[in-house]
């Protein structure tokens, strides 16, 4: 806790009042001086009490893509019967002011630019208060045990998927695939909602018939393989990771089964669905540069 510039001006004014009261022997001047000094001391006590025993807890930081903004969530918990007023939560990137009612908790957010992939630690937070008169500033520093996973920025859309290895995917089969339309059938709960034939289902539902879903004919191999080592040698690591991120997102959106290979000993899949997509994005976010020979 330390006086603000207004606090120093207030103290200088009290000294001037006290000197004038002594010089001119003013009884009312002494009353005013000591009354204001008492008010300043009470204000200092309230500034201290506005922060003491306030509990701060880390909550979460959801993953984001590089180039966006990471959002860190922390909890301010007031376990006393007194209200906490005008609490400032500051970082190097943002600041906000909150009021906490008695016996209440509040989730506060702080935003940090996510410039590169990988783990991003939460910034140091400064909690300060000048309540109630602005004469004193009490502050505390806190480094939350919280970090955000930053996925690689996906490359622009448009690059086709890499070709499957030789000897795989030749010809067509009647197995379910993702290439050519093969007719309609009754909808099953395990079907991808993107494949529902809404126009046909609308007329079917009018007569009490079940939903209809599109059936596709695919190649004998419906698996896509994304290999970090399968790029031309002139492409740097970040360009490769960015392109793999784009392919993972596109394959997941299309419902493909795909495998992500980062090296000869680390491969994810073949699989599909959200858990597989998140696992692949996390692995891409944490790819380490290959050390020079």
Please describe what this structure looks like.
The protein has 293 residues and is of the alpha+beta class. Helix content is 28%, strand content 36%. It contains five helices and 16 strands. It has helices at residues 5-24, 27-49, 198-206, 237-254, 274-285; strands at 2-3, 55-60, 64-65, 69-78, 84-90, 95-100, 104-113, 118-121, 125-129, 136-142, 147-151, 172-186, 212-219, 223-227, 257-263, 266-271. The strands form five sheets. It has a five-stranded antiparallel beta sheet. A three-stranded antiparallel beta sheet has the order 2-4-7, with no helix packed on it. A three-stranded mixed beta sheet has the order 3-11-8. A hairpin with a 2-residue loop joins strand 15 and strand 16. The chain is elongated. The chain starts with a strand and ends in an 8-residue tail after the last helix. Residues 166-178 have low confidence and may be disordered.
Beta-strand content: 35-45%
Oligomer: single chain
Based on CA atoms alone, the radius of gyration comes out at 32 Å
Largest sheet: 5 strands, antiparallel
Question: Which spans of ≥5 residues are poorly predicted at pLDDT below 50?
Answer: 166-178
Strands ordered across the widest β-sheet: 1-10-9-5-6
- Encode the helix/strand succession as letters: EHHEEEEEEEEEEEHEEHEEH
For the secondary structure, the number of strands is 16
Structural class: alpha+beta
